[in-house]
Design a protein that fits this description.
Radius of gyration: 17 Å
CATH architecture: 3-Layer(aba) Sandwich
Oligomer: single chain
Helix content: 40-55%
CATH topology: Uracil-DNA Glycosylase, subunit E
CATH class: Alpha Beta
Number of domains: 1
Largest sheet: 4 strands, parallel
Distance between the termini: 27 Å
CATH superfamily: Uracil-DNA glycosylase-like domain
Number of helices: 10
Order of helices and strands: HEHEHHHHEEEHEHEHH
Strand order of the largest sheet: 3-2-6-7
Structural class: alpha/beta
Shape: globular
Length: 234
């Protein structure tokens, strides 16, 4: 099987996944519901475009999909506008655009473009399904798997299984890049101490932290990403 076939099979398995969550939390699964056919069309085109081979790649792992990001497109860290303009994949009808994807779009371009970047990396998540919670005002907002001890306890075995499944993409386990240098890195490091999924985990600041609170330092953080990615590539 090619890497594309393995990833698409993984997505199909996610379509049949149900999770038990505490009250006030919900799952966002882009692979079910009324949008599933469009998501399947987009992801199939994307992965066959960049992953139709069996070359080992390194994982770049965020925490979980954002409800207005990957939960819309099904492709990690790629918003709709960039998918359409940069890859030629037809995502007509989607309109979401996220600062995180814009920052990574710049990093990918500086790395050498999408063909080169996706030949070396697979972008995904520790928790590949999106999570939301209801805030005190009654609004649904993004949630990370580590924000509640009760939530994390319920998800722990699922998260371990998802990490193990993603190694089956044919992953190069010499290094994993963790997007989110705080709680996401802490959890992934703790898991790795016991499971030894990766020889090394490199933490990288989350693009949202960069674009919202450190916009004047974007070039500095982009250079940090590039140094980390190129260290293992050269």
């Amino acid at each position: 099987m090619t890497v594309a076939q393995r990833i698409l099979q993984f997505n199909e398995e996610l379509a049949g996944t149900t999770l038990e969550l505490p009250p006030g939390f919900t799952v966002i699964n882009p692979f079910i519901g009324p949008q599933k056919e469009r998501v399947r069309e987009v992801t199939t085109a994307f992965y066959h475009k960049y992953y139709d081979d069996d070359k080992p790649r390194r994982l770049v792992l965020g925490s979980s999909p954002a409800r207005r990001g990957t939960a819309v497109t099904g492709v990690p860290f790629e918003d709709a506008k960039l998918l359409e303009s940069e890859t030629g994949v037809d995502v007509d009808g989607y309109s979401v655009s996220r600062p995180s994807a814009g920052f990574l779009h710049d990093v990918i371009g500086r790395y050498g473009g999408r063909q080169r970047f996706y030949a070396d990396f697979v972008m995904s998540f520790v928790c590949p399904l999106g999570l939301t919670r209801t805030n005190p005002k009654g609004n649904e907002v993004n949630c990370n798997y580590y924000e509640s001890k009760t939530l994390l306890a319920l998800l722990n075995s699922f998260l371990l299984n998802m990490l193990e499944r993603q190694l089956a993409f044919g992953t190069d386990t010499s290094v994993c890049y963790c997007i989110g240098s705080g709680e996401n890195f802490t959890f992934l490091s703790k898991v790795n101490e016991g499971q030894r999924f990766f020889k090394k985990i490199v933490p990288l600041e989350h693009p949202r932290f960069i674009t919202q609170y450190n916009r004047d330092r974007e070039d500095e953080f982009a250079d940090k990403y590039l140094r980390a990615f190129r260290e293992q590539s050269d």
